[in-house]
Amino acid sequence: MKKGFRQIAAVAILSLSMVLTAVGCSSSTSSQGENGLSKELNVFNWSEYLPDRVIKGFEERYGVKVNYSTFSSNEEMLAKVSAGGGIYDLIVASDFLIQSMIKQGLIEPIDLNNIPNFKNLDPDLINKEHDPGNKYSVPYMGNTVSLGYNPDQIKTSITSFEDLWKPELKGQIVMVDDQRFILGMVLKTLGYSGNDTDPAHLEEAKQKMLKLMPNIKAFDSDSPKTLLINGEVNVAVVWGPEIALAQREKPQITTVMPKEGMMITFDNLLIPAKAKHKKTAEAFINYLLEPEVNAEIAKDFPYISPNKEARKLIDKETLANIAIYPPPEEMKRIESLADIGDAVKLYDRIWSEVKSSQ
């Protein structure tokens, strides 16, 4: 939910050492407990996306040791999953990646019979085009990339993404390190779809992005709110929940609904091909879909919950925060990230060229 995409084929050059250094993962099949679950589970998730106490709650209830490791981009996740085979039992990926991962044989079907809490999900957020019938995926959390700023420090008006190019914002912006969201944002300022694949339009977006680079102090997908809270930057184009969390420290931080419209994606729980502890992974998915558990996750990491029962337990202030849950009129203008097929190679090249200019 978080977050970029690099061509999967490129990971073939990765060395085996990358796999062996995956944090906390076991390469051997563990024995089963009395509940029929394995005694360990290897989970690979975005950073700052699941509270430790939620993991410990599963461990204590089921007697399973969760080996938990994190990544900061879809590219990193894809590289390690592609190179590592069955080293992970459960991973998280953005919705627009799922069809490609299925075609590449990177994930396997999920048995929804083992996930009775699937019924808690909002009917509008399941059975989507990227995975009809949710054969391979279960929604976890969603987000937009939102625009926020500190009006106490920024005197210029900010009402749109286009305002980010103002020269007075030099060195004042933090952005998520996500090529799809950021290049999508630039495309939208040009009047194009955030999923545009026209090479001419993407070259235009590249040139415009290069002009923005002096204003960008950092690309950060791990904890971009930190720079905003510390006052190292005063403008953020980041995951909406990061703005909401920064507002807990600095209530004056303001969320902008940019006139160009935003983009949205949902992250999903997936089981990699050759996963050694599939039934235990399904038990963990079911646990995360418990309303109380899902609401506990949203307390620390307030992304968009797809769980209609959990939303009944989430505080009203969080549900009313437009950085997390855009208002209905804004949702009508929001564009979902889509699978762009082979055009990902072009996005990847442009992103690399833009980043290398920093």
UniProtKB/TrEMBL annotation:
Coiled coil: none annotated. One of its GO terms (molecular function) is polyamine binding. Keywords: Periplasm, Signal, Transport. It is found in: Periplasm. GO terms for biological process: polyamine transport. Pfam families: SBP_bac_8. Residues 1-22 form the signal peptide. GO terms for cellular component: periplasmic space. This is Spermidine/putrescine ABC transporter substrate-binding protein. It comes from Brevibacillus composti.
